[in-house]
Each structure stands twice: as C-alpha cells, then as structure tokens.
User: Fold this.
Amino acid sequence: MDGTGEPEPATDGETQPDLSRLVEAVRTNLLGDGKYTRTEVAERAGLSLDEVRALWRALGFATVEDEQRIFTDADVEALKNVQALSAVGEIDDEMMRSMTRIIGQTFARLASWQGQLVLQIIGKSPELLSDGSGERVLELMSQVTPVVSDLHSYVWRRQLAAYFARVESNTTANPGAETSLAVGFADMADFTGFTRRSSEAELRTVLDRFETLATDVVGAHQGQIVKTIGDEVLFAADDPHDAAEIALCLIEEAAADDALPQLRAGVAFGPVVGRLGDVFGQTVNIASRLTTVARTGSILVDAGMADRLRDDDRFALHALRPVSVRGYSHLRSWRLRRAER
Assistant:
C-alpha cells in the first residue's frame, strides 16, 4: 500500500478484479470518514501546520494538499499521542522525527506485505467480489484486523522486553554509546541475474524463504537481525563465536535449499554505535566490504573475528591476501570454514 492506503495491484497473472469500490470501502473501514483538512487537524491537535506536515512526511505518507478533506479523528488522536509522548519522555524534536520515520518505514513495509496478501487472496478467489460491493472482503478484514493489531502489540512488547534483557549483555543499549559487537552481512550471490531470470512470484517466494532462513538461524544462535534489505541481511551478536555459527549455518542451509541462490557473508568484530535499532561504524563498514569481495558460498572475517576464533577448534581460518576496497586500501581478511573432524 502507499501512504494513503492505496493497495498495490495484483501481479503474476492473477485475476485482477475492479477494486475501485473496495479501495474506498477499505479506507473508510480502517480509518473512518475523511472529514478534516490538514489545517483543521493541526488546530484540533494543538500543533502548527508545519509540524503536522513534517510528521506526515516522516511517517512516509504520500503528499496531499492541505485543504483535502482526507483526515480523520484517528489522525487527530495520533498527533495528540505524539505530543503526549514527547512531553512525558522529554524527547527532543530530532529524536521525535527519527522515531516517527522508523515507525513509518516499519509499518509501511508490514502494511504492504499484508495488503499484497489480501490482493492475492482476492485474485485467487474472485467470488469474494461477486456482489460488487466488497462486503465479503470487508467482513473478512473486520475479523482479521483486530487479531493482527493485537499481534502487533504483543510482538512489540516482547521485542521491547528482549531489548532490555540484552542491555545486561553488552549490546547497543545506550543511544550513541560505543560497544563491541560481531556484525555480519549475508547476501544472495548474483541476485541481479536471478532477478532478471525470475517472475515476480518466484522472486517473492525466494525473498520470503531467505528472510525465514535468516530469522530462524540468527534467532537459534543468540543473534539479532538488525535489518533485511532485499537480498541482504544484517545481523549482530555479542559473542563472535555465535556470529561465526550464524554465518556458517546461513551458508550451509542456503546451499542445501535448491530454491535459494547461494549466499556469501562477511563478519567483523569491534566497536559499533547503535541508534534507533540500527548499527553504525567502521566495524559495520568492514563487514559490508568483506561481503562484497567474498566468493559465492564463502565467509570472510576480519582481524577482530579471527583473533577471537583462532583457538576454537570448531572453526578453521585461512589468511588471504589483503585487498583494496572502498574506504580501505589494505583490508586483511580470513576465510572461515568449519574445522575438519
């Protein structure tokens, strides 16, 4: 869906019904009737027009004219909640904009996936729109929406509790503070070529399988997925040994799955700065550069990782010639494998 709630079209040869009436019905069902202009929303929320525009953009919604009557009581309430949050936590404007942007990006992706799922269901079961009103679809959504909303809240609370649990174990707990982590990237080799050869349905299936694999493997070895970016996953672990296991398992399990392209990975250990759920710094950059020069099906690690894995008889390290990559003219690396037994 886009920022105004407009569904994306069905693809891959599926039946593409006339959704014009359904779109408006869904928007009304989810948000209520649009009855306010942006100016009126700002007045009711006690914010300036510029503040409302900035928050709207930060949430990733499409640009609309100030005088369009598309805003609802839900928009007013959301802006009041932003104000209340800022007052309670003494959050400055920069942090509020950053937080709002991350929330918008996260839920935009989630909403897009859920919207595509609904459209696929309609495409495969066009009888849901047989009466022309979309009432059957709305009835389905009225049952699903509160369940999904409760699930969102539950997962967020669980993830927040897990974050504070990690505070005790040297993760990026303090905003802007430096801490040492093992950071790794894994991506699908020759993904550009695969994209050219594949249909959208095949591409979607592969990306779903890749994200499922990454989620399962990283979680099983005490790691954390920082983010996924299409064909690439960025993960972190407090313990370099856990990060090594994550990288090896990702490579091995992708190689065993005929539906997935082979992976390559780069892992580095050192100081990172955590901010808004992401990680930054030289260690992250090195892990990224190592991934770009790793061969298909291989894992490269930096000196920080090699130092901490060298005495572990589960792993084998092979020193490689230094390479020149963007930002590093003499980057040392080691190929990581499982030790032969």
Q: What stands out?
A: Residues 20-168 form one domain. The radius of gyration is 23 Å. The chain has eleven helices and ten strands.
